[in-house]
Amino acid sequence: MGRVPLAWCLALCCCWRYAAPKDTQTEVDSPFVGNPGNITGARGLTGTLRCELQVQGEPPEVMWLQDGQILDLADNTQTQVPLGEDWQDEWKVISQLRISALQLTDAGKYQCVVHLAGRTFVSQPGFVKLEGLPYFLEEPEDKAVPANTPFNLSCQAQGPPEPVNLLWLQDAVPLVPVPGHSSQHSLQVPGLNKTSSFSCEAHNAKGVTTSRTATITVLPQRPHNLHVVSRQPTELEVAWTPGLSGIYPLTHCNLQAVLSDNRVGLWLGEPDPPEEPITLQVSVPPHQLRLEKLLPHTPYHIRVSCTSSQGPSPWTHWLPVETTEGVPLGPPENVSAMRNGSQALVRWQEPRVPLQGILLGYRLAYRGQDTPEVLMDIGLKREVTLELRGDRPVANLTVSVAAYTSAGDGPWSFPVPLEPWRPVSEPPSPAFSWPWWYVLLGAVVAAACVLILALFLVHRRKKETRYGEVFEPTVERGELVVRYRVRKSYSRRTTEATLNSLGISEELKEKLRDVMVDRHKVALGKTLGEGEFGAVMEGQLNQDDSILKVAVKTMKIAICTRSELEDFLSEAVCMKEFDHPNVMRLIGVCFQGSDREGFPEPVVILPFMKHGDLHSFLLYSRLGDQPVFLPTQMLVKFMADIASGMEYLSTKRFIHRDLAARNCMLNENMSVCVADFGLSKKIYNGDYYRQGRIAKMPVKWIAIESLADRVYTTKSDVWSFGVTMWEIATRGQTPYPGVENSEIYDYLRQGNRLKQPVDCLDGLYALMSQCWELNPRDRPSFAELREELENTLKALPPAQEPEEILYVNMDEGRSHLEPRGAAGGADPPDQPDSKDSCSCLTAAEVHSAGRYVLCPSTAPGPTLSADRGFPAPPGQEDGA
């Protein structure tokens, strides 16, 4: 119940203020014959107050007051009963106020008020009181606390009736109140040594209410006294003292180490700094660890946490530590010594290897053949002049240099003999200032340009020879002259072949006039889906008077022979003839050039389906950000559409072989179109098709006889349709949950079938079960299925039109529930790339991941339609 707007409330209250004293003085004038009663109930119950009055003439509107304030009543019902034959006679008015789920704010005094002939009348009051078991405002929460550490728990409850007394329980045992602790709402626990449970009971005059049970997990205390025991240039030994862990012994401790700055590497041999601290697990006792392979003279930060069976303790604070300095890892570089009279000039460069500390200087040692070694501390200079004593030259004088840090001397350089002084003169500058290799580089670049131009001209000449007629005899003299006429190309940007250069029969070329599309009229956009056999891309087809949005399916497989090319084009002609509202139609086919030798790659152009595939639609309705309930009428309509499309294909003697919700598309009118003929096959002779090559098949949708013998008929498509009905009824669930692909055949052979989905009509499940009969002859035809589904749809009551239709948006990128493509042409994204059709697969193995398995081949040779999506012509049914 809410309050009326402020202006209306003030106006009504003013009227009542002036009229009520006058009316209440004479109770005889009051029209009320029944006043509100009293309600006493518990929180959450429903109560009803009632007023009755008798009036002459038009009945007034009855309003209700709570504690003198007018209520805006959503649950107020008013009944008017005439007591005479004329509307101007006496009326009986009954007003009922229903209070749902009593709360503390509903308690108070209630009265009815009416306005009659300029006067205001108020009924006698009725009272609403709230009484019941205590109601918890706050309950104890779960905590993890260190052992023997004080903590607090809170619990708060209220009536009415009051007072409410709280009693705390530990491990279901009541606790004795602590003397001097006045507040019952807070429990102060001095500490625990084992994990315990706490709850509180609230008592009042009506009874007892028990709060939730809070679990207090006792963890080890924070370790302390983390310190360094010993330090070396590449090692640190640290120790710590563990904290109390209650009755639970420590199992191990974890030590984390991280560089104190942004220098590269944490341990020796690691070039990249870690994103997170390195954690080392230590068995205890002892509570000590030696860190090895550290960087010398490097600051680190370390911390420790110990773990028991209840969990880890808090980490210690970071402790800064530092390894000691080491000696340089290598000698100075490029040491040279030259004599100039009685002096020798020695020079060197700083070591290139790490110094492992702060460089304090260099030491130099020299000796002659018959003289003792002399050591000198040079400091940080990198050259020194030695005075050679005596007039006689020093025989075989050699010099060595070493760098040193506070840790000691590094390696000495190899002894360098003293060489005589050679003055260096500047060479005369050449008249031509460019170095010789500049000229050589320019010559190489020029030669490369000439070679590229020659290759381009040869390639262009080869293309003209392939697609045009270069030499043609003249009419006058019969001489061969060059009269090049380029033939029509479907793309000027690629090496696409034309029909005239493909070498196909004239009869087939005549049939292809309405199928082939100029490749340069198709503009490709972003990729909508990608699978094993190809990828689907968004595109635009530039027609004569308009631009049509299409889906372009590119094939990943190659056409290796002219026979395969003719098979593909023949299948395209057949699909172009499809004309049914529930079957995806083919707009056209074009070719694009291939980097491989052989024939060009086929490109299939299909209508763009804005609403995506049916499986994604069903998943989004159930698992999307804004789930939408799909009524049974809509689901049955989807099934009927698929049955109608499959009935049409069966009349055309087509076997789909991959019928599933993922291969059915939704058009603009939310009608389903059967799509993705990637495994389809046309039957020219007989009523079945036997697969004769290795192919990946959707095992959970395949009929049991097809799994056993690789035989496909229209009745095997009926089995797949039953599985598709189950998908629709479950709104996109995966069939046979918990059963692996490799186990499906044995599971079906044992008589098991898909279980009836929740909320699925018995008639629909019975229809599915008929589709899964062991004997294919016992299964219904698609015509019978369509008729049964249409009758079921007619028997259902009309569904309410949803306020908005769930769209699987194909334009906003792909989420983890990815649509498979706007034209149903993308294979499942979890499939590996298919091998080239010119290669041969030799292994027959079961893939448990995904929906597909490899079926072993019994007949050699490629089968075009098993991969490309069009029916094979006569003579190609068995893949021979």
Explain what this protein looks like in three dimensions.
With 880 residues, the chain is an alpha+beta fold. It folds into 6 domains: 2-130, Immunoglobulins (Immunoglobulin-like, Sandwich); 135-218, Immunoglobulin-like, CATH 2.60.40.10; 220-322, Immunoglobulin-like; 333-420, Immunoglobulins (Immunoglobulin-like); 505-607, Phosphorylase Kinase, domain 1 (2-Layer Sandwich), CATH 3.30.200; 616-677 and 701-798 and 806-843, Transferase(Phosphotransferase), domain 1 (Orthogonal Bundle). It contains 12 helices and 53 strands.
Unreliable runs, pLDDT <50, ≥5 residues? Answer: 1-27, 429-433, 464-497, 678-695, 803-822, 824-880
Multimerization state: single chain
- Share in β-strands: 25-35%
* Basic shape: flat
CATH topology of the largest domain: Transferase(Phosphotransferase), domain 1
How does the helix and strand content classify structurally?
A: alpha+beta
For the sheet with most strands, the description reads: 7 strands, mixed
CATH architecture of the largest domain: Orthogonal Bundle
